[in-house]
Amino acid sequence: MNAPLTIGSVAYSPNVVPIWEGMRDYFAETSTPIDFLLFSNYASLVDALIAGTVDLAWNTNLAWVRTVAQTDGACRALASRDTDLVFQTVFVARTGSGFTGLASLRGRRLVLGSRDSAQAAILPLHFLREAGLNETDVALTRINSDVGKHGDTGRSELDALRAVLDDRADAAAIGINTWQAIGRGELLPGAFESFWASPEYSHCTFTAMPALSIDRSDEWTANLLAMDWENPQHRPILEMEGLRAWVPPKLDGYAGLVEAVREQKIPDRW
Amino acid sequence: MVAAIPPVSAGLLLDLVDSVRRVPTGRSVSIDFGTCDRDAALELISAWCLSSGNEIVKTEGSAVTVLHGRSPDPLAGLDPDQLPGSRVWVYTNFDCNLACDYCCVRSSPKAERRAIGADRLRQIATEAAAAEVTELILTGGEPFLLNDLDELVKTCTDKLPTTLLTNGMLFRGSRLERLRRMDRSRLTLQISLDSATPDIHDSHRGAGSWVKAVAGIRTAHDEGFRVKVAATLPADQMHELEPFHGFLDTLGIVRHDQVIRALAHRGVAETGIELTVDSLIPEVTITADGVYWHPVAADHDDQFVTRDIFPLADAIAEITRQFMEHRRSANAIAEWFPCA
Ligand code: SF4
Fold first, then answer.
1. N vs C: which end of chain A shows fewer Cβ within 10 Å?
2. Which residues belong to any copy of the Radical SAM core domain (chain B) (predicted)?
């Protein structure tokens, strides 16, 4: 039997242990068993992937882009969640604030999440730039409450929303997952409304280095994609990890982030 | 334009999302909505739980306990015949020709009859069949003390398979005639016998009772009824069962109809296992006084559920609801004391 593949993941939620133990149990029944290693931040995870300490890394979009940069494109993306291919950033304000689009943020106060969060900091600035606004046109506040985890915990986005409620900011940029978590403005219609949503882009992806043979990674990916929402053993793991199906990655969904990282001169080891 | 003031602070919503995310699926957190409008706060938390796949498990004052994820079905893992309402027990009466020293409902010749009566039993049988109950179990007291027992049994067997519990000592004369009129294809008799020899049985149930009970088992068997034999034993005698099984084999009782029950600390029993509502899978039990959790406590207030026997489906639903609540809080206790 093959030695288990070691998967690295950041401990971004208290569910990571049950998720990865569930994944390990699932893969134990396949031709590609796995074990896992947990990291406290994505910089260390990417280092471990490049150093060969782990065979695969469960990377955020920023971690993927940084791995590509640090390996001159030698790494491979293997698979993502269905929800990773349609990720969006949503700009949110108090209901009735009168924002009509990104341009109406000129001269107003925008709160961003953690500086290493693609959805709540890096891409929002990129979208503003595309809308003709630079960093001096908008009064920016950053809430760096979960730096290192690339915004995965969602905590900085909730703090950004609190800043809007407390009138410390007029609007917040958050990920679609946080917007969904608070009920998309429908649970408390008088509280928040979204006034702009970005085009869809790609989020997390499993990343491999060339040291892992294509045959082996293909076999592992096929086993991953075989996880089935309708299977009562698989579903709890998929539910906890926030997907209905594992799918092949969508690489052109990272183009905006690659550009944003270049524009904002984001360092390699975030 | 002035933004509408939400009836409840939107900060509560953010706290809710934040707190629940910080615990793993399967664990719960307590959220305090403070001075927010109670109804609005509860409405918001319920709506959020519904849309996000989480669950409110408890509300106490301004504190709401929310489970991350959905609780497992508290009835999962039970055999279908353990689900509340799969069987319904009915106490036909409480008086008895015996006065056993462990009787869980304090029956004796002096006990008040408290008969369920023909009309109520007919309605129970009809509603039980409609509520997808699969079996009726009639017990007492001693049912054969009732002069209309054959008719009572018929109202049950006409609707559902039925088991009739008896001490088997009264199969003579008109009572034997009543037995003979019962529907053998739908009725099982369950007769009490505690030992392979008279000593133990008679020490609890009265001198001479063993001989009569064994004769009753033979009579019922010879009359063509399926006969189950049930023994009530203290825990310390549970290991010496083989001679007893061997004896019942000679009476023609098949092994799966040889039922051994542990003595319960109920009624006039001075010892026995403690059976409380939160430790006991319910068996819907009806007496003339109302609905009880379990037949072993049909004379005890702590297991009284409701005075309203009808609609029977509601009584079953109420027991099911309480049972689910007990199982959920048992899970929650296990969660609160993870090291214990
Ligand atoms: S245990 Fe049965 S036979 Fe004995 S007194 Fe109670 S009801 Fe009568």
1. N
2. 82-303
